[in-house]
Amino acid sequence: MGKFKIGIVSVDEHTSFVQRNMAATIESLKALGCSEQNILVRHAPRLTNVAMVVQFFAEYTDVDAVVVLTERDDSAEYATMLYAVSKLQIMWNMPVVIGDCTTAADAIDLVTVQTEMEAAAPEHTAPDRKSIN
């Protein structure tokens, strides 16, 4: 069984982008140590719903990080989504990366760095990043 558990948010309004990137994201995560059963996929109908899905992962699952598959753009909705997701990352102490299939490696890197930092912290003998908040 893989040592990482990763959530993927697919943004339905970017269907062709998600279709081009979903399989490659899953394969990349598997190559980086995730077993297929530890990759959870949820759908957000629009960019404005991404924060709700990320919060779902934080509150109701034990994923280590979330990958949001969506196209980068200059829209107000994209900027609002980035802001909301950034706040959730801090609130839940859970890495979230946004982009295409290449961001899967970034998610694993962030989880690894976070785990190493928590293990090195003097006040934690057995760190649990989910219990911080």
Report on this model:
With 133 residues, the protein is of the alpha/beta class. It has a single domain, classed as Lumazine/riboflavin synthase (Rossmann fold), CATH 3.40.50.960. 47% of the residues lie in helices and 16% in strands. The protein contains four helices and four strands. A four-stranded parallel sheet has the order 2-1-3-4, with helices on both faces. Strand 3, helix 3 and strand 4 form a beta-alpha-beta unit. Helix 1 (15-31) packs across helix 4 and helix 2 packs parallel to helix 3. The protein is globular, with a radius of gyration of 14 Å. It starts with 5 loop residues before the first strand and ends in a 13-residue tail after the last helix. The model has no long low-confidence stretch (mean pLDDT 90).
List keywords for this structure.
Rossmann fold, 4 strands, four-stranded parallel beta sheet, 4 helices, 47% helix, 133 residues, globular, alpha/beta
Brief sketch in words of this structure:
This protein is 47% helix and 16% strand.
Shape field: globular
Unreliable runs, pLDDT <50, ≥5 residues? none
Report the end-to-end length measured between terminal Cα atoms. Answer: 28 Å
N-to-C SSE string, H for helix and E for strand? EHEHEHEH
Report the helical percentage: 40-55%
- Largest sheet geometry: 4 strands, parallel
Average pLDDT confidence is: 90
Instruction: Give the name of the CATH superfamily.
Output: Lumazine/riboflavin synthase
Strand tally is 4
User: β content, as a range?
Assistant: 15-25%
Placed side by side, the strands forming the largest sheet appear as 2-1-3-4
Total domains, how many?
Answer: 1
**CATH architecture classification name:** 3-Layer(aba) Sandwich
Count of separate DSSP helical elements: 4
